[in-house]
Write a structure and sequence with these properties.
Layout: H1 22-26, H2 31-40, E1 43-46, E2 54-57, H3 60-67, E3 73-74, H4 103-111, H5 117-137, E4 144-145, H6 146-163, H7 171-181, H8 189-213, H9 222-227, H10 237-268, H11 270-278, H12 283-294, E5 299-304, E6 308-310, E7 313-315, E8 320-324, H13 325-328, H14 332-335, H15 365-381, E9 384-388, E10 393-394, E11 403-405, E12 407-412
Parallel strand pairs: 2-8
Antiparallel strand pairs: 1-2, 3-5, 4-12, 5-8, 6-7, 9-12, 10-11
Protein name: Cytochrome P450
Organism: Stakelama sediminis
Family: Belongs to the cytochrome P450 family.
Length: 413
């Protein structure tokens, strides 16, 4: 199937089906090449990209197959993003999402208790109170940046609570998350070094928090859970930092960009917004639909540990595969011909792959859904509507699929 599309004429030519190009996401024009990939070559070998050769996996079924075979398609062998770690230039920061079994299992189990249904119930009143406070401080009929005032503030507050992080310094979490999640930064030695310095600054800050909790009684925050677990209590500094970065980026970027997609996306589909405003009972389903439509992390990478067959294509041991969740969530064979639209009552919205699938499915998925759902409920309670007043500034990268800013104003309906 990969040979059914035209390859670039020479290594210097841009492959129109290289969907790792940052401008596709900066300019929000990624939909067309992915539609072509899904139709013509759902498992496509891209020979020339800024990240080297890789397989693009763009439809729902093969992504689920890969995620269901973690011993054949490894998260640990090459990491979880298209960018390769260069041993001489980078420091490896192990994290459990980029580990294979059995180590992945033990470390995931350590943090999982922070995201159980009982913990969600315990935290929901506080999330609702903080959401209400932020919304009540927003001007009605006056412009502001939705990303900064709502999306970033709500998710950063939540992260500060999860880590028992000093409240006055909570925006440091946003800063570190932005540096950690930007895949484009690996392309120059200078930016790699700058990024590493910020990551070590993050690690030093958290090491102080860790040291203060050693020997203390367990508390319901992630650092205390790590300290009091067999799987994570003896991590070295790099593994500690790697797992911190995973939890910061996972907790920040996914929820933050789904909250921004709520404002931007429903503005693009006013008929669906009106349907939701008229029927708040649709909010739980609309949350799943918004997360599907946005897909806050565009891809995850896997590396083949052995030769394998995938939809008629021969995958060789060591090959890099990009699992494009952003495309699978628009797969017409699963979500129908209107998959590019937001449909707040879409019957199968919860089938989305934004949280991944299998053993690496996002451990904080419930918390992300809870935060976005409470935001929509509190907006509905106040009969507030977000009116977008200009184009968003988007993240120019193929990993975090998100928004830097979104000019908006509120009105009442």
């Amino acid at each position: 199937m990969a040979t059914s599309v035209d390859a670039p004429a020479s290594p210097a030519a841009v492959d129109p089906l290289d969907v790792s190009r940052p401008e596709l996401y900066r300019d929000d024009c990624w939909q067309e090449p992915f539609a072509r990939l899904r139709a013509e070559a759902p498992v496509y070998r891209c020979e020339h990209s800024d990240f080297g050769p890789y397989w693009s996996v763009s439809t729902y079924r093969p992504i689920v197959e890969i995620e269901s075979l973690p011993d054949i398609y490894s998260s640990e062998a090459g990491g979880i993003v298209l960018a390769d770690v260069e041993p001489e230039a980078d420091v490896k920061l192990p994290m459990f999402i980029a580990m294979d079994r059995p180590k992945h299992t033990g470390q995931r189990r350590t943090v999982a208790p922070a995201f159980t249904p009982s913990e969600m119930a315990r935290m929901s009143a506080d999330i609702r109170r903080r959401t209400a406070e932020i919304l009540d401080e927003l001007p009605v009929g006056k412009g502001f940046d939705w990303v900064d005032r709502v999306s970033i503030e709500l998710t950063t507050q939540m992260l500060a609570i999860l880590f028992d992080f000093p409240w006055e310094d909570r925006r440091k979490l946003t800063f570190w998350s932005d540096w950690a999640g930007d895949i484009e930064l690996v392309k120059t030695p200078e930016l790699r070094q700058q990024r590493l310095e910020h990551m070590f600054e993050c690690g030093a800050y958290f090491q102080n928090l860790w040291n203060r909790k050693i020997g203390k009684e367990p508390t319901p925050d992630l650092i205390s859970m790590m300290i009091h677990s067999n799987a994570m209590s003896h991590m070295d500094q790099y593994e500690f930092l790697g797992n911190l970065i995973l939890l910061i980026v996972g907790g920040n970027d996914t929820t933050r960009n789904s909250m921004s997609a709520y404002a931007w996306g429903l503005n693009q589909y006013p008929d669906e917004r009106a349907k939701l405003e008229a029927n708040p009972d649709l909010i739980p389903n609309a949350v799943s639909e918004i997360i599907r439509w946005q897909t806050p992390l565009a891809h995850m990478r896997r590396t083949a540990t052995q030769d394998a067959e995938l939809m008629g294509q021969h995958i060789r041991e060591g090959d890099k595969l990009a699992l494009w969740y952003i495309s699978a969530n628009r797969d017409e064979s699963v979500f129908g011909p209107d998959a590019d639209r937001i449909v707040v009552d879409r019957p199968n919205a919860r089938r989305h792959l934004s949280f991944g699938h299998g053993i690496h499915r996002c451990v904080g998925a419930r918390l992300a859904e809870l935060q976005v759902g409470i935001l929509l409920e509190e907006m509905a309670k106040r009969r507030l509507r977000v009116n977008v007043t200009g184009e968003p500034t988007r993240v120019a990268a193929c990993f975090v699929h998100g928004y830097r800013s979104l000019p908006a104003e509120l009105s009442r309906y």
